[in-house]
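User: My instructor asked us to take a sequence, write out its structure as tokens, and then describe one feature of it. I'm not sure where to start. Here is the sequence I was given:
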Amino acid sequence: MKATLYDALGIAPASSDEDVRAALRGMIRKYYAKTRDGQGNVEEALRFINHASRILSDHERRQRYDRDLAGSADAELVGERTTGRDLLLGDDAYTEVGAASALGDVAVEDPLDTGLPGAAPEEPPMHHPGLTQRVAPFVHSPWLTVGLCGAFAAFIVAAVILVTPPDAVGAAREVFGWLTATLLILVAVYGAVHGVVTLRRRHSVARSGLVPQTDLAILNWRRERSVFLGTNQPQEDASWIFQLRMAELERAKAGRTSEPRPWHRLAARSFDYALWGLMLALLLNQLRGTGVVGADTAYWLSHPLVAPSLISFTWVPLEALLVAAVGTTPGKWLFGIYLQLSISDAYARLDTRAQLARGLRRALRVWVEGVGCGFPLVAPIMVAIAYEKLAEHQETDWDFALDCLVTHGPAGVLNSITGVCGIAAMAWLYGIAWHQPTADTIGWTRTTIAGSMPSLSTVMRAFDGGGRTIESLLPSRAGRSALAATSPAVALARGPSGTAVAAADPGSGDGGFEAMLAARRARVVSLKADAPQMLAAHDYPRAAELCRAWADLDLANPEAWRCLGSAEQGLGNYQEALNAFRKAKQHAPHDSTLDASIENAQRGIIHQFLDRYSH
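Assistant: Let's start with the prediction itself. The structure tokens for your sequence are:
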């Protein structure tokens, strides 16, 4: 018996519709857009795929095909020739074949070659429309390519010039530090995910898969002009064959390939998100300037813990629209990536509305499964998992679910330079914008955790309370007195004149720690009185020194940070003043006077920048 469709696809007859679509998509990846060295006649393979998808993609036709397979097997066992060929023979609704013939019967001439009136079916045959789609760049003119790349470059360069602070060297040091730390974290996350996936693969049971007989089936198609149970070649429309040949030539000319390139896809998505984020930042700045969005709201909307989720979520409808319209996005176009939806379903609707709905569902799945809803603490893990799945299965979960074929082509020198340099420049922009909020968040987290932990005296009382159970483990009373007299805590507890600020009970187990707390409180009180006096006297260097010491000792006090901001602003250090005012605003979010201070610092930065570059 000749090879069946299931043999050709390498699946079992009882396979689900999802397995059938996956097998068809695998064949399309092999013959439709892949390096074709040694793969034979691509046109014949695509005609074969067209025939297979028309049968297996329709539930009723597949059932008839299964019944015909069962009848053929029974006929071979009893040695009788089957007469039931209602599936692929005759002029029925299943195959659209004009006339039936088996081995020994009169051969039916190919209507593509002869054009006989009687050879054509009564109704126009249905063909797979996805196989005739041309996968070529939507920008054919080199001048238009230069214009788009130039527009991207001009936008990013202008943003870099406007955002980069006057102290570029200091800012670069901080940004590169954050980027290095981020890179190390990403490498650690990927290493952990890769290790877990590798262990799971080692412990998983190897599944016995069927070996596809695709090449043999296509050889029979070409040589015998028949396939599958000795039936005739289905009728094919000459115009569809012409479209198939033209689309194949266009793909070969464009150098398309369906081989997975995960890093290209990651770079393209990063470019799209970063570019869209810059546009949203400009919009947010305009809304803030007109008073539609308050300063606090704008601060949190642009915070690095919130902004990535908003950027990636608002990109979902725009990505769906671009994929449905042109099959790519700005980032994907720069890196030569194109998408085709409903590639293995011969009966799928390809109108704009249906394609837009599929593109929207795919973009939502990418947002949830691919980037973890954009949350920075989850996105690296989800990206690493998606990379491992793509490397193993040759396609992602969302491409499998939405029947999407991703093809790659040569991006070109100009596109590649624009994409790589654009990603690097936008990483600098986001590093400048996010390094201070990130530092504030880390500092607030550290302070909150430290404040929530019990003090040493509380812990000592918990252990020593009641029966003073650890009394025997401590030195004697005299020893503790001598130790307390020479400990650094006592030295810290003394004022400038050498007199003790707070005396500790030498009999208590935590007298030294209490002395340290007393010294700290006394120091804070002293700075709280001296720093504003220096500020009022316009002694900004001394005021900055005292205010900084005050802020270091009393991190959660907004007045300390306000004092430091005023002192730095008096010295002309507007960036440091802005950072201090933002710290104060973080601890006193409802203080409206800090908004005016922040605005003044920002205006100072702008005026300083203009004065520097206007001469």
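For the description part of your assignment, you could build on this observation: The chain has 25 helices and four strands. Try explaining in your own words what that tells you about the chain.
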